[in-house]
Amino acid sequence: MEKAAGSPCVGGSYPQKNAEILSSQYGINLFLAGLLLTFAWAVHAVGISKSHLLSYLITLMLIQLLWMLWYLCRSCTQRRLIRDKDTHAGARWLKCGITLFAVITLILDSFKIGYYIDFSNCLSPTEGIFPITHAVHTILQVYFLWCHAKDIIQSFKTLERFGVIHSVFTNLLLWTNGVLTESKHQLNEHKERLITLGFGNITIVLDDHAPQCNCTTTTLCSIFSQGIYYLYPFNIEYHILASTMLYVLWKNIGRKVEHHQQHKTPFKFHGITVGMIFGLIVLTSTIAIVVVYLIQIGGSKIKSELALTMFYLHAIFVLALMCTAGIVALLIYRLEDRSLDNSKNPARKLDAELLVGTAAGSWLLSWGSILAIICAQAHPKYTWYNLPYSVLVIIEKYIQNLFIIESIHREQEKVNDDIKTLRIVTISRGSTLSLTPSYKEIYNGRAARDSREVPCLLKGSICGRENGGGAAANEETSQENSSVMHSASDFSIYSSNAGANNKRRILKNIAAFLFLCNLSLWIPPAFGCRPEYDNGLEEIVFGFEPWIIVVNLAMPFSIFYRMHSAASLFEVNCKT
Hints:
This protein is mostly helical and 576 residues long. It has two domains: 15-199 and 215-256, no CATH class; 267-411 and 500-575, no CATH class. 70% of the residues lie in helices and 2% in strands. The protein has helices at residues 10-42, 50-77, 92-118, 126-148, 157-196, 218-251, 273-296, 301-335, 346-375, 386-409, 417-420, 439-443, 470-486, 491-526, 531-534, 537-542, 544-575, and strands at 423-428, 434-435, 453-458. A three-stranded antiparallel beta sheet has the order 2-1-3. A hairpin with a 5-residue loop joins strand 1 (423-428) and strand 2. Helix 2 runs parallel beside helix 4 (126-148) and helix 7 runs antiparallel to helix 8. The two termini are 43 Å apart. The chain crosses the membrane at residues 26-47, 53-72, 93-117, 129-146, 229-250, 271-295, 311-333, 354-379, 510-528, 540-561. One of its GO terms (molecular function) is proton channel activity. InterPro entries: Otopetrin. This is OTOP1 protein. One of its GO terms (biological process) is inner ear morphogenesis.
């Protein structure tokens, strides 16, 4: 067993730094080999088939399964040992989110198994083995993340670094495979839609990987083949979330942590009614827009143009609201004087880097659309709505990133020491003294409603004794009542605190509203509502193949940005 991290000697950290570099290079080469194999299959390279790609992915998953089983068994044998935990990693809401995506991924695997059974005559056995292996891999990985996402590994560090980084890039390759498969399906539908929009000068060649045999049960085959592509967005989000959680685990290997109490910040619906109502209105309207868009697009030229116009107008309105909410939140932050938490935190650092990095995907598409509108010779009416839409996408992400990154770096507000030492009691005639639940109830007038009770506020002292009844209590009554008048100035503390609570309530409503808006904007591209494909103007300016390559590279990052932003805003709402 290796020596635990935190040794003061420099020589102890040198091998671990080498292990970190070696393991990262191993993971990158693993990923590049799989990426090249995926690309070769996508372009129909000679000698490369889908079975080769699936065999490679199955091998990677089996290796990860062996490592996770070894880690779980070793953890069971060392159950009584006290381990360091990263309290910021693996939040419960994040585990619940990945569990939801994993359940839908298991449904996707069952559809793939059914699809293989119906086309078993002409499909490779690897296409049946892959979903079974993937289902087992999904179940064990979710269990592993629930139990050990917070671990800070201090033993067998070199071996664990290779095991964790192998898991990270295995999930990234599975994510890449899902993105490519889903993108090829979307691209085929997009090529067919371009015909209805009148872009006949674009060569339409469908990229078909369908089996070259008849299905045994036509109805089931149709359900499986169509259902698979509607479930892929959840599978894609599952793997990217798993890879980020595993990456934080890898960064935490051998890390020294300060042992301090972490305040739990549960999610509460109280006080965010306004933000939730407006957010749910946006969510409901977005779902309706997506349904109408998918029905109308490709039906005829007029219907397709109306669908694009409807999408752009709705998106412009939502993005404008989000920009306004983000600006208000940043102005509130400017009015507050609170320090930032700059302590080392791999999870928080990764969140900030992912926000900026994945936003670049949307920015690339937006700038491409802006240039296409400027340079195009002919402008159909619906394409002009693309200009404010693209500009707002850039501005909204810029503002939202500032809000989220500052929110997750702000220190939580602490209660003033004067308020902490305040003792609030009530004097009841002819009865013992009783403590009121909190100073907030006195301030809100709740305790004052109790008959024949007088609140008494004293700095650093208790107003009466629980056993001081009778004559002694009567003698002290006049003195205590005079203290009530003297301590009225203490209410100024609560007045300032009330202002802070109002700001806090506004911030929580903004975070809740932006959370639901990001979920709403995740839905259209994830389920095939992609005007970047269907607009047609960019393909004319940049060329069909170059623009499709740009969209296929940038769109997965744009989709992930919305889900990651929603997760970060949920955390902001809990912290605020």
